[in-house]
Structures are given as structure tokens and as C-alpha cells.
User: Fold this.
Amino acid sequence: MSRMQPALAALGAALCAIPSLAVAQMGTASAPPAGHLYHLPPTPHTVAWGYYWSQAKPVLRVKSGDEVEVGTLITSTPKRLEGAGVAPGDVQQSLRDIADSVTDHGPGGHILTGPIYVEGADSGDVLEVRIEKIDLAIPYAYNAFGPRSGYLPEDFHYSRMKIIPLDKERMVAHFAPGIDIPLHPFFGSIGDAPPAAMGRVSSAPPGIFAGNLDNKELVAGTTLYIPVWTKGALLEIGDGHAGQGNGEVDITALETSLTGRFQLIVRKDMHLDWPRAETPTHYITMGIDSNLVVATKNAIRQAIDFLVTQKGLSRDDAYMLVSTSSDVDITELVDGTLGVHVMIPKDIFK
Assistant:
């Protein structure tokens, strides 16, 4: 959750000026039949701690249409969790193994499972990530803030971590007596390798490679479309959240360990310059920038482009339709680059 490096900021600003590329309609291509199902647990040999990188060594190779069950770990350390009140026996052994033996850290702090090499994927393609299932892996989450993070560090100039029990049967988090938070598990970070020129990128700020989007809409049953920037895509997944509010204002959500099942599809008929997504009820366009105004304009322009290229609207009508039918939401405010997304309802199209 460190701040974005200056070089990344400069490249991101330059990319904002690139005209939107033509896009094939989301969700219209038939998926290849489900192929082999792989299982990828988090171990010292199957994680990338704190980075997305085009030179990272793949830990699994799959084909387009294959499914992968991916285990992910809570973004923390055993020492920190125990210090906040987690019993030693409730700390996952896989987290202990990784904390003890993985020394190649950073520049970010997320323990990401992968990278996964998807055969046939190459620069200019889109990786369609169908999020089929998400399960809680442990019965607790945490929320924390610190004096140099979050949206109000000037008001909270100290650190605090709170352990929050998760009730899997009722699907709520017991935040405090009389306060239960409904759970909607999702992965805060799903991304592929950035362009080689960007080097090894922190896992904290999201970007054109998706990554730490922290978009709470990406629950089971949704699809994320990620531009591919390097051969094999090199997909990494982590930063499990049992739930989150838009903005993620103190810099953490209900941070926990999750297991997810994904179908990975190479789309050579799609060409995107920013990530997009699709739920059963909405199309989602996204804007990302270190400036919230620029991020918002990017998200709205992406929505207009989608409506023009995929729904046949004029630019004038597309602009009007976004204003009259769609919600422009803040995704997150705390990861160096800020996120905004536009929710375009599907039921307005007959």
C-alpha cells in the first residue's frame, strides 16, 4: 500500500492521453468450453510478494478456457496478526511459511498468488477473467490504519488494527456488539504484468494492468477484462476482502484470506487501453489516476466510448445517457492512484 513511484505516475499520465482503442463488446464472445481445472495454493514457491512484473517467473501455465482455483493470503504477517489478538493456532501455516522464507519483497505489501502464464495471450490482447466462485478461507478479517496512510492521516496520527470475526453461515462480519456488516467477498487485486518499460511495479497502486483496483463490484459471477501487455499475461491474484465500502477510506477493507475459482479466456477480438468489467446487471468502465478529477473524467470517457462503439449511440447521446442512467462511484481513494468507476445498467437496453 505504498505510494506510486514517480516513473509510474509519469507513464500513467502519458497513457491517459492515448485515444481509446476499438473494443469488441463485452460478454458477447462465446467462451471456450471449460478445460482443465488447476489448483494453485499459496506457498513460498507460488507467490509474488508486493509486485507485478513482466520478468516474473510463471508458477503455472494454463490454456485459454482453463479454470484455476487460487488460494490467497491475508495481507499481513503472523507477528502482526498475533499482536492484534489472533491466536497463534489461527494463523495459517502457509502464511508462516511464506513470511519465514520469502525474502524477495516489494515494493508493495500484498502477497499475490501467481503469476499464471496463459498460453496464447500476448500484448494487445485482452484477458477475460471470469470470477466463478469466492469462498472465505479463515473465520476472521482485520481492518487497520496508520499515521502515514488512509485518507485522513492528519486526523489519525497513530496506528490501530482491529480483528473482526466472520460468520460464514450468516455471511456477516461481527464488527461490534449490535453492528454486523454484510459480507461480499472479492479480490482487491487481480492484475497481469505491466508493460516491460514500467519495470517491477508496486502492488499498491492500480493501473492499466488492473492490479489493486479494490472494486467491491468484482464478486463471484462478475467478469474482469484486463489489457494484456506481455506474453502470457502473467496473472496474479490476492488482497482478499470479505467486504469493503467504496473509497476504502482508512486504506484497508475487511482484509482476509480467500479461495477463488476463475476461468481465464484470451480475447483476441477485444482491444482495451484500460480495464473494464461486467456484472450480471451492469457494465463497468474505470478511470485511474493520481488526480481524482482526471480519474473521474477517464472513467466517464471510457463509458462514452463503450456506449458509442458497442451500443451505437452518438457521442452526444452517450454523454446524456451516462448522466441520466449511470452511477459514477469512487472506487478507492488511498492507493496512490485513485479509482473511479461508472456503473452502466444493462436493463435500460432492450
